[in-house]
Amino acid sequence: MYTTILTLYRQGISQRQISKITSSHRNTIKTIIDRFEKDKIEFPLPYKRSSKVANWHEEIITLTASNLSLVRIYEKLKLQGFDQSYNALTHYIRLHKIKQDTCIRFITNPGEEAQVDFGYVGLQYNSFGQKKKAYIFNMRLSYSRYDYYEIVFDQKVETWIRCHTNAFTFFGRAPKVIKLDNLKAGVLNANIYEPLFQKEYKELSDHYGCLLSPCRPCKPQEKGKVESGIKYVKNNFFAGRKFRANADMNQELAYWLLKANDRIHGTTKARPRELYEKHEKMAMLVLPTSNYNKLQWLRRKVAKDCHVTIDNNYYSVPFKYVGEEVDISLSSTLVQIYSINNLVATHPRSKAKGDFITSTSHYNQYKQYCPGLAEYDKKCENDLRSLGCYCAEMLKELQEHQKDWQRAVRGILSLRKIYNAEDINLACQRAVYFGIYTYSIVKKILASNSYHLPLNEIDGGSYASNH
Fold this sequence. Notes:
Helices cover 40% and strands 18% of the residues. The protein is elongated. Strands 3-2-1-5-8 form a five-stranded mixed beta sheet, with helices on both faces. A four-stranded antiparallel beta sheet has the order 10-13-14-15. Strands 11-12-16 form a three-stranded mixed beta sheet, with no helix packed on it. The chain contains 17 helices and 16 strands. 24% of the residues are buried. Residues 185-196 and 458-467 have low confidence and may be disordered. The protein folds into five domains: 2-39; 52-95; 113-286, Ribonuclease H-like superfamily/Ribonuclease H (Nucleotidyltransferase, domain 5, 2-Layer Sandwich), CATH 3.30.420; 294-367, no CATH class; 374-466, no CATH class.
């Protein structure tokens, strides 16, 4: 409309006629013409309406950086005297693109901190020549940016632990603090105030004297140094390279790592290896004399036979834990079983398959006495020997001639309900004399009262012929 009014005015049309043609008020037309005549303004000036919200710009930025929701920002501003609407506030924030995108640069002292993480690096050849999903483990020392990298094919707890111990060996020292993401291999519960760590990972940190410090949830910038390390190895080692075998890949990575640690780092403007050797190494923790030997923790349910299964072997647990879940700590030589952090059983770790490693004391007392268990067999032997020397001789013969000799012994011992020990001993004497080593013949001798007869009596032969 502004341009139309000026065009009609330049054609010599009066202001009254222009008002009729454009349906504009004559005062508006006069203002436009006067502005043109005085200042030669041929186009309308943009109208800038001042925003009262702009008076609170600094306060809005401060509250936004505090990670507050828009509702809480509005409530806080209202307490400070803000008199505009909620919609006006949100419109102003969107219009000026005020975001929570500021961050703090974390500066660490030499030897104070290392950051760790996994990064996916595509399909690579494993040691068996198979292409599998591969991950790069990176431990980066925060002060010097000295790096350790290792290629793995899973993110299991035992792999996570092994990578840490390999990194400590590579550095020759351990950091005072390990900054990590909340991945399951390290942290079970990502609680800001009381994070719950994997047991074996916590034991690892205790063994080396390190403090574990997980990032706050959804705050990956808190471990930005290792994030940069993962990005660096992806873009500078894996990008554009193809490997013929796992050994070839690991060999090239080791060579590349030597050069990477000797480059001029973009942030520190120094070589990571030089910073490490000059300033950081002596500030780190000295490694313990013994290696960390706990490989992994497992959770198993105790079967009703009082055993848990580990790597196709069976280890006994006290009977009172049947049906419950127990935690199992595995080292290269030991199996330690815990119930609610209490050690309840320890066994040597078997390298075979299908072994039963059993402590009979783990069974309920009345279950300990059954054929095949040492306590049961020992008791049978002692009880039969206690009846006399001929019973002991009968025992010896039974053990030599019968695989399940315990059955016959139990039968002979059951005769004590009717006969005294002396009579049973004599009956065993007669049975042994005739070379018949069975429970039934001893019972028949006792029933016929023939145990008092002289041993040369022919009736013994009749027993032999009948049996």
